[in-house]
Write a structure and sequence with these properties.
With 302 residues, the protein is an alpha/beta fold. The chain has helices at 28-36, 78-90, 104-116, 136-139, 142-153, 171-180, 219-232, 246-255, 266-269, 273-288; strands at residues 6-8, 11-13, 17-19, 41-47, 60-63, 66-69, 95-99, 121-125, 160-164, 186-188, 192-194, 197-198, 203-204, 211-214, 237-240, 259-262. Strand 12 and strand 13 (203-204) form a beta hairpin. Helix 6 packs across helix 7 (219-232). The mean pLDDT is 95.
């Protein structure tokens, strides 16, 4: 009998699929519904210390093979959002809090509040490609990745997982920096910096001009990043980018991921995406003779 349960940085997940940050995570109710729909864990909306409005519309462009978004990280601030965290956690969801801010102190303050209200782990959004001063600038500096990770690790007792960017020249070095800072796991990757132009209007479609590309289009990039990270770090990696089917997840496992996050796929497969993908993973494992997900992790390196 195949077993989809995984151990990840001290967390016991019922299966290796997680809801990615930024998808159906604005309320405790929506987070709980996703968890009850089969996700192994859910990652919250990215939250900072104080309320943030985000960008004006249009903020999303749908493509054949994904989507580009430039929301600008809108959120109500950690004080208001913690009531949503508590609702989801008290009802049984395993929740990972996604934190960001303008400096190490803000990241640490947000992380502490998430922990206080029951988050099982912290994801550090160090890599948003379209929020000026709040993501990509941090993600491109090994020193910053290490420092921000260490700052959060020093104030919480739950696992800390920096989310790295594909928009860099050497993601392996940033993974090493995250580990030096005390990271318990690495999330790879955030969206790819991209844009869309309207030929009829002769101008960029997004109000912010640039956004982050997600979905099937970035899966080869995500796989490459996970593969490179697995070569240099011995902490768990959570693969993100274009996971739509169980086979997509299996490819990430073989590249070195211990679990995967699912986001854009919910547009096409709905709330049932998690159970469907888990069934497809299980079918592959039974066909190929794998008893546990851990047996597949990193096998493409052998």
């Amino acid at each position: 009998m195949t077993d989809l349960a995984v151990k990840l940085a001290g967390l016991s997940l019922r299966n290796p699929t997680l809801l990615a940050s930024g998808i159906l995570d604005e309320t405790g109710g929506s987070l709980l519904r996703v968890f009850k729909s089969g996700a192994g864990a859910v990652v919250s909306k990215s939250i900072c210390l104080n309320p943030r409005a985000g960008y004006r519309n249009p903020t999303v462009v749908e493509l054949e093979n994904g989507m580009i978004n430039a929301m600008g990280l809108p959120n109500p601030g950690i004080e208001a959002y913690c009531s949503e965290v508590s609702k989801a956690v008290k009802a049984g969801a395993m929740l990972i809090g996604s934190a960001f801010g303008k400096d190490e102190r803000e990241y640490a303050s947000v992380a502490k509040e998430f922990e206080k209200h029951g988050a099982a782990a912290i994801e550090l959004n160090l890599s948003c490609p379209h929020a000026k001063g709040l993501g990509l600038e941090i993600a491109q500096s090994a020193e910053a990745v290490e420092g921000f990770t260490r700052a959060v690790k020093s104030v919480v007792g739950i696992p800390v997982m920096p989310k790295l960017s594909p928009n860099v020249t050497n993601i392996a070095n940033l993974g090493i920096a995250a580990k030096r800072g005390g990271a318990d796991a690495i999330v790879a990757v955030n969206t790819v910096k991209a844009m869309a132009i309207s030929a009829e209007l002769r101008m960029p479609v997004l109000a912010n001009k640039y956004g982050g590309l997600s979905g099937p289009a970035i899966k080869p990039i995500g796989l490459r990043c996970v593969y490179e990270l697995h070569e240099v770090v011995d902490i768990p990696i959570i693969g993100v980018g274009g996971v739509t089917t169980g086979l997509d997840a299996v490819e990430y496992f073989m590249a070195g991921a211990s679990a995967v996050q699912i986001g854009t796929a919910m547009r096409t497969r709905g709330y049932g995406a998690f159970r469907l993908i888990c069934r497809e993973i299980q079918h592959f494992m039974e066909k190929e003779g794998f008893k546990a997900v851990s047996e597949m992790v990193g096998i493409a390196h052998e």
